[in-house]
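Teaching soon. Invent one.


***
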Amino acid sequence: MRKVITTNFALLSIVASSLVPASRAQTDTPAATALPAVPSWKINCPGVRNVPMTADAEQSLPLQVISTLKCGEDITVLADDEGYTVKIQTADGAVGYVAAIYVKKVPAAKRAAAIESADIENGVARWQEGARGCDHFVSNGILVESLMVHGITVQVSLHDTGWKLRANVAIANSGTQPIHIEPSQFILDDVGVRGKPLFYQDPEQLAKNVTHQVLWTEAIAEPSTASPRAASSGQSVSATNVGYKSSFTPSVSAPNYIIQQQNAEEDAVRQQGKQTLNNTAQQIRALALKPATIEPNGKVSGAVWFERGKNPQQLMLRIPLENEMLEFPLSFKQQK
């Protein structure tokens, strides 16, 4: 009896030892490579209300109809020999044949390229052409700089109204935590040879000392590494018709968050000719970027006004966000 038990234990040991390597091999085997996504197909109905699916590829008469398919119905193509019919499977698992003219391939949606976070040095992220997290594009004829840090995208354009400097700013929070913005803490510095700080202007005070120049644009800044755009002396150019030309090739990866503010501002400009100064003051308050807490997936935009120096050309707009400072180098030639 003892001999039988010993023999059985030996057999179990052999079996166990043979299973261990197999288990380790399974553990060490890399995961199977994901198969390419199956193309998306739909039923297309040019000139008909529905499409018959038959049991035979020839669709001989009388038709052996399995099902009647609706226009736009999702299907899977199982075989296509480039003949009269295509073998398909419906969403409910039915398999059959439909005429090839009723099958349409739907292109896969293009996935937006992921934007990498900009480099941060000593708590500062600075916009640079072609750098990681830095993008630029033309919106409504105006070049916009875009900078992304930790899922937070800030987009700016800078305008000279001839009275004040006005920054249009849009901020989108694609991060996981709320962020707080305080426009009065935004900083604009003249960084030229005789540079100085250009102080933030309270929109409430602007509204009290209202002038139509607060929205009209005489010059638009561009990245400071580009040649400033010139206009004829004394020319007054409105935000609705200015044409932007630059050697910069716009990038396309950054979504356009600033367009809503631009459209609202252009509407205000178009209406100024028939409005009272009181209504213009209301527009200033409505268009101004306000202190806000931006929740995840939220975004805000608005105008921020600054003191206008005598002849600023090279400027740096600094926007604090939580523990980082985002810097946007800008330049333009004054027209006065």
